[in-house]
Structure formats: structure tokens, C-alpha cells
Design goal:
alpha+beta; 3-stranded antiparallel beta sheet; 11 strands; globular
Length: about 500
């Protein structure tokens, strides 16, 4: 503020007083301007500070390496300066955060910085009972959001007692384990799908993209498989066949969404093992998840048969039928911390997709899957719908909050917060369920006796039947005493003995 005030003063001294957009500036008399002559050598403390830090600020605001002070004072607008300073601060903070991340957080930097989990924890109004999380769920989500260790131990490597793969201390493996995934992913998927259908029922009529409610897991969409139970979409909206001036211009008949939950492959389960999998970060995993949805599996041999007609068609042929019927598939890929895949981010937020074939789909093997993926990022499919919703809402309701709270004044803010809420409740609850499936927790990799450390989560989680939890339940679960590490002898339970 100090430097911008001085900049504005010097601009007025040198160029005159700004009287309006279409009026000439009023030049100040010499008696006033002479007081500020030769400000670079002025002994005043005010100008000493300005001359000391001004060049660096001017470099950021003007993006010039030399002779930056003159354009900074005379021609750079204050709004431009504010934007450039904010961008520079954000970049510096991001680099600092990334530099200080633990090694086991380097793979999913993008989803950590995405911030949906943090919004679900902090921005939702607690006046609404549905936004209040149980203590154990809130603390679990808080540890995940801040990337703090859930399992505290002395630099010992951990392994999962179920799949015997490497186990990180931040809880990422809870969503990677193939054994745990069979127990938690279906419910997590259904919760996300139900929430998305609810959001579409209010959002799509607002932007005039659809007039009817969203359909969930509808059959008979594939012509050749009419009467079968094949459901190509988790949910979809029907676009109006006859549109008026207020409708969103789109030539498609339906837009369908297929939710897929994915994670980074830093500690891959046996089903996705291999050295290549370990190098995949979260962005690569999201793109791979979208690719699998466009291809409906990994090979054309994956086929479906209609019991009534006896017709068998492959996944590629199903995509062909949808494409020719002007039904657009949008894979809804979601990471454990709430980062969406590039196709869904384009649809919601208008984020550009870098490549025409970002999914690297083979045009010879999957020609229609590639066409479907290319159309998903083309102008034929709506994009940036939340910004459009913002414009319409502000024009129709200039003095009303969309989310009935000052914290969610417009649709974009509201729905981003709701996505954060889903991360907390759907994904977070699945994480607690996964912890209960671990029994006494992860095992120390190098220990022959399978000794396991108690974790920080034991102080507030009551969903497992372990010695540590029983001791906590006997005492005060909300104790303010600092966490101490205790050794509990344990043996891994067999996956066959796990109760759902």
C-alpha cells in the first residue's frame, strides 16, 4: 500500500490529476511539482524506502528487467499491479510449500493445492446440521488436509497387513489397497453419484442446459442392447430437442457422466504393480482413469450380451453407438483429495486441455473412443458452466446469496464448497472404514514380530476393535494430553476374515 500510494502521488505530480476517462489531466503548478523533483536522490525517509524496494516491485508489476521504474510510475494501472503482486506471492508460496513437502507428498502436489478438502473443512456454514462432521471424521480429514502423519513412528517403513505393499503414513494407501478397495469404493462411488445428481437438478435449469431432472443409471440407452441391464452412464441429463433464446446452444441429445475414483500410484497394489506404476503422479492417474472410461476397459474383447436378443457387442461398439446417437460421455475422475480430471474440470471450470489427444488413445484400436474423447474437449460440449451460472445468478439475483450464506454468494463458490463437503463425508468416511479394516494398523516392514505402532488417529477414532481403541474408550477420547507412541504386539488379520 505504501509503495502504491507513492506511485500514485508521483504519477499525479508528473502527469497531472486524472479528471475522468475522456478528459485531459490537470497539470499541477510548478510550486507543487518542484517539491518532488529528483525523487531518486531525495534524502527523505519516505523516498529512501520507495527507492530501495520500488525497483523489485516495479519488475513484478511491469514484467520488465530494465528501466522498469518509469513505466511502473507513469503507465501501469493499480489493478494490474495488484494482480501481478498477488500472482507473484501465490507462486512464491506455492514453491515454498512444495519445497517443504515430505517425500511422500510429492506425487500428489496438484490435488493438495487444489484445496477442495480445505474448503469442506472451513468454508461450509456450521449453522446447517448437514455440514457438521463427527469429531473423528473432522480430525481425520484435518490430518489429511495438512498432510500430517496419521501413523507416527520412528522413521520405520510400514507395509499394509492386507496386500503386503508399502504403506505411507499420510493415509494415501487407504485408497490404493486392492483389498480395501473392494470394501469401500462402491459406497464412496454411490455417494458421489447421488450428490452430483442433486447438484445437477438445481444447476442445469439455471444455465438452461436441461429442463428435466438428472437420470441415474438408466438402461436401454444403447440401441443394440435395448432391454438389457447395460447402463453406460452413472447419471445423465437430457438436452431439450427444441431450444429457445434462453437455452444453452448444444447439438447433443444427452450428456452422461461416469464416475471413477482413482489415486496416485506411489504404492500400487499387486493388480497395478510394476515400476512404471510407481512413477505415476495424481494427474497421470486421473488421465488414465478417464482413458479407461472412454475405452470402456483396456481391450475390445470386453463385451456385453443382450439376453433377450443374444447380441454381443464390445465396449468400443457401445461407445460408437453413443457417439452416433449424439450422447456425450464425460468421465468424472475424482482423486482422494478432490481433484477432478481434466475433462470434468473443463466442463465445470473451463480449464483448457493441453493436447487434442491427452489420453493417448490409439485411433486404430479405439477409433470411436478417440472421437468421443476429442468431442469432450471440443466446442460441441459446454464448458465453464459454473462461470455461466455465476453471470446468470448475479444478473437475476444481484442482492441474494446463492448458498444462503455470505460464504457462498455465487454458484461457483457454492458448488466448489459442496464438492469439498463430498470429499469430507464420502471420501473421508471411506478412509475411516479402511482404517477399521486394518485391524491393529500397518505393520513395520523390517520387524519379524509384526510390531505395530499406535497412531495419532487412535485418540479420536472409535470405529475399530483394537487394543489401542479399547484403551482410549476406557479413558477420555478428547484428552488434551500430547500423543505418545506405544508398542502393541499384533498379527495381521487374513483378508478372508474381514467383516464388511
Amino acid at each position: 500500500i505504501f509503495h502504491f500510494s507513492n506511485k500514485k502521488t508521483l504519477d499525479t505530480i508528473y502527469n497531472g490529476v486524472n479528471l475522468g476517462k475522456h478528459r485531459k489531466r490537470y497539470i499541477l503548478p510548478q510550486s507543487i511539482t518542484s517539491l518532488y523533483e529528483n525523487h531518486t536522490n531525495n534524502p527523505s525517509k519516505l523516498f529512501q524506502l520507495f527507492n530501495k524496494f520500488g525497483p523489485e516491485i516495479a519488475t513484478i508489476c511491469t514484467k520488465q528487467d530494465s528501466n522498469q521504474m518509469e513505466p511502473f510510475i507513469n503507465s501501469t494501472k493499480l489493478n494490474t499491479c495488484h494482480e501481478q503482486i498477488n500472482t507473484s506471492i501465490a507462486d512464491r508460496l506455492t514453491k515454498d510449500v512444495i519445497y517443504n513437502f515430505d517425500r511422500d507428498s510429492k506425487h500428489n502436489i496438484e490435488e493438495i493445492l487444489d484445496g477442495k478438502l480445505g474448503q469442506g473443512l472451513l468454508d461450509l456454514p456450521r449453522k446447517d446440521q448437514n455440514n457438521r462432521q463427527p469429531n473423528n471424521l473432522f480430525r481425520y480429514n484435518l490430518l489429511r488436509c495438512l498432510r500430517l502423519n496419521i501413523w507416527e513412528n520412528s522413521n520405520a517403513d510400514l507395509i499394509c497387513p492386507l496386500c503386503k505393499q508399502d504403506f505411507d503414513k499420510k493415509g494415501d494407501h487407504l485408497y490404493q489397497c486392492s483389498v480395501i478397495g473392494k470394501k469401500i469404493k462402491t459406497k464412496m462411488h454411490d455417494q458421489w453419484n447421488s450428490s452430483w445428481c442433486e447438484y445437477m437438478n438445481r444447476l442445469m435449469p439455471l444455465i438452461k442446459l436441461a429442463d428435466s431432472k438428472a437420470m441415474k443409471e438408466q438402461t436401454c440407452l444403447v440401441k443394440k442392447l435395448r432391454g438389457s441391464r447395460v447402463r453406460p452412464f452413472d447419471s445423465h441429463i437430457n438436452l431439450p430437442t427444441i431450444s429457445n433464446d434462453g437455452h444453452f446452444r448444444c447439438r447433443l441429445n444427452k450428456i452422461g457422466f461416469d464416475i471413477i475414483l482413482c489415486n496416485s500410484d506411489t504404492c500400487p497394489p499387486p493388480s497395478r504393480g510394476g515400476s512404471d506404476a510407481k512413477s505415476n503422479n495424481i494427474t497421470t492417474s486421473l488421465i488414465a482413469a478417464e482413458k479407461s472410461k472412454f475405452q470402456r476397459g483396456r481391450a475390445t474383447s470386453k463385451a456385453r450380451t443382450c439376453l433377450d436378443t443374444g447380441i454381443t457387442i464390445s465396449g468400443e461398439e457401445i461407445i460408437e453407438d453413443l457417439y452416433n446417437s449424439k450422447m456425450q460421455l464425460i468421465p468424472f475422475a475424482i482423486s482422494p483429495l478432490g481433484l477432478f480430471g481434466p475433462t470434468m474440470n473443463r466442463f465445470l471450470y473451463g480449464k483448457t486441455i493441453d493436447s487434442n489427444n491427452i489420453h493417448n488413445i490409439n485411433a486404430n484400436t479405439f477409433p470411436h473412443a478417440r472421437k468421443m474423447a476429442n468431442r469432450a474437449s471440443s466446442t460441441e460440449v459446454p464448458s465453464n458452466i459454473l462461470e455461466r451460472a455465476n453471470d446468470i445468478w448475479r444478473r437475476q439475483h444481484p442482492n441474494e446469496n446463492f448458498g444462503l450464506s455470505y460464504k457462498s454468494p455465487d454458484p461457483l463458490t457454492y458448488y466448489t464448497q459442496q464438492f469439498g463437503r463430498d470429499v469430507c463425508f464420502a471420501t473421508g468416511s471411506a478412509g475411516l472404514k479402511a482404517i477399521s479394516l486394518l485391524g491393529d494398523g500397518p505393520l513395520i516392514k523390517s520387524s519379524r514380530n509384526n510390531i505395530c505402532y499406535d497412531d495419532a488417529l487412535n485418540l479420536f477414532t472409535n470405529c475399530t476393535d483394537t487394543n489401542a481403541f479399547r484403551r482410549i474408550n476406557e479413558g477420555n477420547a478428547e484428552s488434551s494430553q500430547p500423543t505418545t507412541l506405544t508398542h502393541v504386539s499384533t498379527y495381521a488379520r487374513s483378508p478372508d476374515n474381514l467383516t464388511p
